Amino acid sequence: MSDVAEMSLPAEWGDDERMNFLFSEFKENRDVNTTDWDSKMDFWVALILKSCRERGSVLVNLQDLHKTFRRKEKSPLGLSTVIQSMARCGKIQREPEFAASVDCGWVSWSVGMLLVKPLKWTFSTLLGGGRVPLEESFVVLELVKEKAAELLGVYQSSEYSSCPVVSFQELCSLSSDICADESTLCMALLQLQKDKQVIVSLHEGEKIVKFCQPGQERVSALGDVDIGVYQLQLSEKLLGERVQKLSLEADRCREEARLLLREGKKSQALRCLRGCKRLEQRADSLLAKLETIRGILDRIAQSQTDKMVVQAYQAGVAALRLSLKDVTVERAESLVDQIQEVRACYFNG
């Protein structure tokens, strides 16, 4: 969590008398002086929310709060009470509790991820007045809803908006300006899944996210066509990178041949030119296959409302399920050949 010097502070932070009161422990009985109690509680709740917003985070824990709000070598004594009160009021929720409130496919990943450390206490203990563990993280519900809306907006305005399925790693990069860390992104995705705006799934060892598309009230189930199109897009990216690399290698060979000719090394220059020719032929071959994939993707994009065309492509798309753990150019090429056969079967037969 950010140091207090990095966030904007309320005016009373410089008032020693006021801050001595705010840094003191809460009275055991609120009824003794409800005005003082509520004033102190409101101050800390507002400052915690402000701190999270400025950091781009939706998570809090006591250990970080004590560091963040340290003043003149002292930490606030009543933050545990503030956390307990926020939990009772439904402003915050423990990470595992929040994850468990989300149904369907996400839970197997999210709960497994969040419960990596043994839980030494329960939520009922918290509400019953027990001590709050320093490192226990809580989701700020108001902020996670805001962050979820931000994330959805970033996706919808990005180059990925035409791709219903996005890899988790691509989403990490896309959200780096709005999510302070991966945990914040995970919480935002949990909220979006709760709102039926995304589905998160584990496919062949990699997390993928399917977003709700324009015109839909809720995200549709992740199907074979979705996975197939995702794999097509993965193949398109892979082949594009390979074509670019081969082109650069060919340019280097051509330049090397020129230098050798200037030095009078004709035989070596000819060998370089032959190598250059092979690289160019290889690049042309891959480029043709890349154009095939792009054509398939364009056709699929244009046929979203034509159920019969989508079904016809389904078999071809299914053939493009590359293993995400072992994607190679050769496999991508092989799959292009397979889908061309499927196209011939469905559209020329």
Automatic annotation (TrEMBL):
Q: State if Protein transport is listed as a keyword.
A: yes
Query: Where in the cell is the protein located?
Result: Cytoplasm; Nucleus envelope
Key words, A-Z = Coiled coil, Cytoplasm, Nucleus, Protein transport, Transport
Q: Which InterPro entries match?
A: CHMP7_WHD (IPR057471), Snf7_fam (IPR005024)
Listed name of the protein:
Charged multivesicular body protein 7
Source domain of life: Eukaryota
Indicate whether Cytoplasm appears among the record's keywords.
yes
State the family it belongs to.
Belongs to the SNF7 family.
